[in-house]
Amino acid sequence: MSYLEDDLKQALRRTDPSEDFTERVLARLNGAPVSEPSWWERIRILIEPPRVQWVALSLMASILIPAVSFHYHEQQRMQAQGEKAKEQLLFAVRIAGNKLHRVQQKVLETSRTDTL
Amino acid sequence: MKILRITVLCMAAGAAGYGQGLDLKNLDRLSEKASDTTEVTLDGALLKLAAKFLSADDPDQAKIKKLVAELKGIYVRVFEFDHEGVYGESDVTAIRKQVQSQGWSRIIGIRSKKDTENAEIYLKEGRDGGLAIICANPKELTVVNIVGKISLDELSDLGGNLGVPKIDVEKQKSFTNKKEDD
0.90 exceeded by the pTM? Predict the structure, then answer.
């Protein structure tokens, strides 16, 4: 056997890995830097359709907000109309009352005159 | 010319309301000649809406609320004029004819020669009845029509509210008859 052959055998002989080899490999894998998304990936995210929940939420909001707003304004309108009608009613009763009062006074005056 | 015009028109409006109350349309033309016009038209849903806004805590308003519950409409027309003779007897006669033909009872009627003021109060019992007041003097004409079930007791309840006096209707009736006999 030549010296060369012995040297090769010596150099390529089987050796066991160190005890912490597995830990070091795993540590390298976990700590690997996250690759930045490419410009293409960024565009894809932008044009990606929104999630269903957000669509449903937007739809509900677009229905509910005008409905609540309309209801609020309708309530306000009814309130104003009711207050106005109430004032009219009190005013009308006041006029009727005043006229009745005047008629009653006239009747009493005439009654007194007749008695005398 | 100062014109006070208070008009509240019911959305359901017109025919139905007027059909039950007196037709006061013939008085509309007087508003052009009057210096002051007061017009209140409360009927149907609007009257009920007004009643809802009356406070139950206020004793006066509570009484009116109870009274209004039985009513179908309240119509008031007041015309004030700067001069005498702007409106004619025919304007009043048109209203008077209506009440006479529709079975109303005149409970009070005053014709004062001293201050030329005429006042008449008509009452109609029942659901389609009500109260009608016609007060006419040379410079002012007032017509009030309250439509609906308004009994004499309710009329008495109205007494004391917002200046409405209590009236002994039976006493006034006999008094009116006596006056008419004279």
Answer: no
